[in-house]
Write a structure and sequence with these properties.
single chain; 4-stranded parallel beta sheet; alpha/beta; 6-stranded mixed beta sheet; 11 helices
Length: 281
């Protein structure tokens, strides 16, 4: 079924495939470079394969999609009947994906509005879902963009990592912060602020950090009507336990998504990641 406004996002949204299909959304894949082999996220490399490579200390980097890939995606959406496209992407602080989309949008056959959500993972995914719902309600291009931007402004993302080393290697956190955390042997809690990763708290043990992550998520949700996502990398038991506790403690919970992050985000966080996304409706 063609839609007036089509929604495009990227593979770091980590949206469930049934939701993608239901809303007719397309996710443009980022690339993971493992040694000298370039692999598309979501189809050519799994999170488990990535975690194993990191544990073996293999060289892992990531790269954005090319403008040509975006151009082909926009063309296909137009040929399917879209008269406008909203293209929603992970923070431009993390990747050149937004810039590649902007370049491709200039020559697209229909108007394309590219949005830097400042988010990643299901924090981005919830923005895409809000945009899709607005489009399906008959919203204009501007109204769909406004729905996505409103969701982004109200969404919070918090996460725990076993070590800051992976974030330091990828340039996603300052060397001074990473060194400070390592020197004190603390377990860091981080958050997304203005599209960047910032230190939130430093906790002495993993168990205390995960308990604190739960408390922060519960406090952030309050009594509002919210969607929640719990993410992990190679830590399914941690994720399941956190999800169970949030299900009991968040009174306004509507949808709860539990999933392993893909290889692109995993490359920068390392195994042991546990994250909580709180997104008021």
């Amino acid at each position: 079924m063609s839609r007036h406004v089509a929604i495009v996002t990227d593979s770091t949204a980590y949206l469930p495939q049934p939701a993608m299909a239901r809303h007719g959304m397309v996710a443009v894949p980022l690339t993971v470079v493992l040694g000298d082999e370039a692999l598309e996220e979501g189809t050519e490399i799994s999170a488990r394969s990535l975690a194993l490579a990191l544990q073996k200390r293999r060289s892992v980097t990531t790269s954005r999609p090319s403008p040509q890939v975006f151009a082909e995606t926009y063309r296909a959406r137009a040929e399917a009947g879209a008269t406008g496209i909203v293209s929603l992407h992970l923070s431009a602080e993390f990747s050149g994906t937004y810039d590649a989309a902007v370049l491709a949008a200039k020559d697209a056959p229909v108007p394309v509005h590219v949005v830097d959500t400042g988010m990643v993972a299901m924090a981005l995914g919830f923005c895409a879902l809000a945009a899709a719902e607005a489009a399906e309600a008959g919203g204009s291009l501007d109204e769909v963009v406004a729905a996505a931007e409103k969701r982004a402004a109200n969404t919070s993302a918090f996460f725990y990592v076993d070590t800051l080393d992976y974030l330091r290697r990828g340039g996603r956190i300052g060397a001074a912060q990473a060194l400070f955390g390592s020197a004190l042997a603390v377990k860091p809690l981080l958050q997304l602020v203005n599209g960047r990763i910032e230190m939130l708290e430093k906790v002495r043990t993993a168990s205390k950090a995960i308990a604190r992550l739960e408390e922060i998520a519960v406090a952030e949700a309050g009594s509002a009507t919210v969607d929640v996502a719990v993410h992990h990398l190679a830590a399914p038991e941690r994720a399941a336990a956190l999800a169970d506790r949030l299900r009991e403690r968040v009174p306004g919970l509507v949808d709860l998504h539990v999933s392993e992050v893909g290889a692109v985000i995993g490359a920068h966080t390392g195994p042991g990641l546990l994250g909580a996304v709180i997104s008021p409706r």
